[in-house]
């Protein structure tokens, strides 16, 4: 069996010459301006072996812009973290600092 598996949703063959399988990938939306972003900042310890993580949730936009914002926040905090699935994770308790920086940059943060 070939290692190149295409995900066609169970479709093996079609007699329709104009057939194209539907894509299950979500479309990327354009990044909203900072004033229209409703970001929520909270502390989280779930499934992290008791470690505290600052979680920024609610970002709407492209993955590149999310990663850029995450990198700026991680640099300001001087710590590690990640940015994926519309969330920014920052290792440690930096809730007040992150909210202050986001508001200074024009974001609506709670």
From TrEMBL:
<feature type="region of interest" description="Disordered">
    <location>
        <begin position="1"/>
        <end position="36"/>
    </location>
</feature>
<dbReference type="GO" id="GO:0006417">
    <property type="term" value="P:regulation of translation"/>
</dbReference>
<dbReference type="GO" id="GO:0001731">
    <property type="term" value="P:formation of translation preinitiation complex"/>
</dbReference>
<dbReference type="InterPro" id="IPR005872">
    <property type="entry name" value="SUI1_arc_bac"/>
</dbReference>
<feature type="domain" description="SUI1">
    <location>
        <begin position="45"/>
        <end position="106"/>
    </location>
</feature>
<dbReference type="InterPro" id="IPR001950">
    <property type="entry name" value="SUI1"/>
</dbReference>
<dbReference type="InterPro" id="IPR050318">
    <property type="entry name" value="DENR/SUI1_TIF"/>
</dbReference>
<keyword id="KW-0810">Translation regulation</keyword>
<keyword id="KW-0648">Protein biosynthesis</keyword>
<dbReference type="InterPro" id="IPR036877">
    <property type="entry name" value="SUI1_dom_sf"/>
</dbReference>
<dbReference type="GO" id="GO:0003743">
    <property type="term" value="F:translation initiation factor activity"/>
</dbReference>
<keyword id="KW-0396">Initiation factor</keyword>
<dbReference type="GO" id="GO:0003729">
    <property type="term" value="F:mRNA binding"/>
</dbReference>
<dbReference type="Pfam" id="PF01253">
    <property type="entry name" value="SUI1"/>
</dbReference>
<dbReference type="GO" id="GO:0002188">
    <property type="term" value="P:translation reinitiation"/>
</dbReference>
<protein>
    <submittedName>
        <fullName>Translation initiation factor 1</fullName>
    </submittedName>
</protein>
<comment type="similarity">
    <text>Belongs to the SUI1 family.</text>
</comment>
